[in-house]
């Protein structure tokens, strides 16, 4: 069974059709990358899949359920991280995680928060205020928050955008491990082609609101007669 199905999703903002009949799926344990130029419609698509905005047409099905009709049931098993979402600045790192653990009704919240602090190597930062952290440190707290409820579907909008190469590498390894161990499905946007090649089982390329190419990194490179995803991106982006 597909964990996530986007079915002919459409979103318009005034005269702009940001997402134009987009359909794709993410299977159990699968990591799918959603790629495209700035403004291609990736974040708008993610926001519809998370129920943050309502599609003008089409349907989102998660765990076989219609998101519009089973919102609470679905969203309790989903989580999201994006570098552009701010967590409350005056709160300490462990206070933020405690608050979300309670919000998600996590069982044994204290133990789960401690586990996430360990997993994301946040020990030295647990007593620091969110507003005092560097952007890379905030990203790690975002990811800890996103993993708190052991989501069956994890949606990540540019998860490693603010991380230095060492932290980025560790986080990529960690996320791949989480997907492998828990069988969680992941949907990721990224402008880092090496990251996508390393992490994603399948890739959907968006251009001007539509999916224009889909496949594994190797299939896409073969199809476009190039050596890697970076070159596929340039070919797709330049039409
Ligand atoms: N709230 C909004 N109001 C008006 N237009 C919007 C809104 N959100 C997005 N758009 C427009 O929809 C299109 C798709 O934007 P979106 O943020 O989905 O792109 P993206 O692929 O995520 O880009 P990036 O790689 O830069 O993050 C763009 O033309 C954008 O200007």
Automatic annotation (TrEMBL):
<comment type="similarity">
    <text>Belongs to the ABC transporter superfamily.</text>
</comment>
<feature type="domain" description="ABC transporter">
    <location>
        <begin position="4"/>
        <end position="233"/>
    </location>
</feature>
<keyword id="KW-0046">Antibiotic resistance</keyword>
<dbReference type="InterPro" id="IPR017871">
    <property type="entry name" value="ABC_transporter-like_CS"/>
</dbReference>
<dbReference type="InterPro" id="IPR003593">
    <property type="entry name" value="AAA+_ATPase"/>
</dbReference>
<keyword id="KW-0067">ATP-binding</keyword>
<dbReference type="GO" id="GO:0005524">
    <property type="term" value="F:ATP binding"/>
</dbReference>
<keyword id="KW-0813">Transport</keyword>
<dbReference type="InterPro" id="IPR003439">
    <property type="entry name" value="ABC_transporter-like_ATP-bd"/>
</dbReference>
<protein>
    <submittedName>
        <fullName>ABC transporter ATP-binding protein</fullName>
    </submittedName>
</protein>
<keyword id="KW-0547">Nucleotide-binding</keyword>
<dbReference type="Pfam" id="PF00005">
    <property type="entry name" value="ABC_tran"/>
</dbReference>
<dbReference type="InterPro" id="IPR050763">
    <property type="entry name" value="ABC_transporter_ATP-binding"/>
</dbReference>
